[in-house]
Amino acid sequence: MTDPDQRRSREDYARGLPDHHDPTAGFAGAPPARSALTLRAVLAGFGLVFCLVAGLGWLAVDELPTWPGIVLLVLAAVAAVDLVVVLRRKARGEPG
Q: Shortest CA distance to 93 belongs to which of 6, 11, 5, 16?
């Protein structure tokens, strides 16, 4: 696969991408490191739900300052973007 415009297949990811360096590969019989995309997707989903609910709940209380609720909603937006990126990477066939 020398053409950078060509899409990578699932087999390309299984063989390993070029210029990927795993310093622990084969150390003491350990298998090469794998991507943790599924774990990252689960954590991003949890962060999205938690920050969204907590942020909206914080803003619903009148006696509390508004800035922590806004920070939580910004973090929810960051989690949503991360979730989209991870799901796109999984959809194109990256293992993990």
A: 11
